[in-house]
Amino acid sequence: MRDQLELLWELQKIDLGLKSIKEEKDRYPREMKRLDEKQRVEKERIQKQKEKFESLEKTRRQKEGELSLEQEKIKKAEGRMSEVKTNKEYQAFLNEIDAIKEANSRMEEEILQVMDEVDNLKDELSKRERDVAATLEKVEAERKELQGKMAHDEKVWSDQMERREVLSKKIESKLVKLYDTLKEKRQGVGVVGVKHETCQGCFVNVPPQLFIEVQKNNALVRCPHCNRILYWEGNQDTK
Question: In terms of pTM, does the model score above 0.70?
Answer without folding.
Answer: no
